[in-house]
Design goal:
With 121 residues, the chain is mostly beta strands. It has one domain: Thrombin, subunit H (Beta Barrel). Helices cover 7% and strands 47% of the residues. The protein contains 1 helix and 8 strands. Strands 3-4-5-8-7-6 form a 6-stranded antiparallel beta barrel. A two-stranded antiparallel sheet has the order 1-2. It is globular and about 35 Å long.
Length: 121
Amino acid sequence: MLAVESTDDKSGAAGSANQSVPVTGDKRSSFRQPIDIRVRITLPDVKESVIFGRGEDISVGGMAIFAATDMKIGDRVVIEFVLLSGRQIKLEAIVRNRHSYRYGLEFATLTSDQRNEIERL
């Protein structure tokens, strides 16, 4: 883990407090498992708006997907997909980041059964 000294002024000089702040390269609390699955995405705020995308990785906290649509950070969506075990998952997610057509989704309504199924991947 890296440490960064705090600064008191705009010059970048270390302050008298000399505090250390932990810095990590990844803010995620859960391991992301690479996957390649079809994802059905429903945009509840858009009447009858259903599109399909591809899941790239998954954890109990969320999923990265590719989808040819224009979602905004903060949008709530409903996603559905089938795991390799055959288990169908349907839940609400929140768009947390976007790079072109790659979206980072945070699961909002993961049940304990769904969590257990994802942890087994």
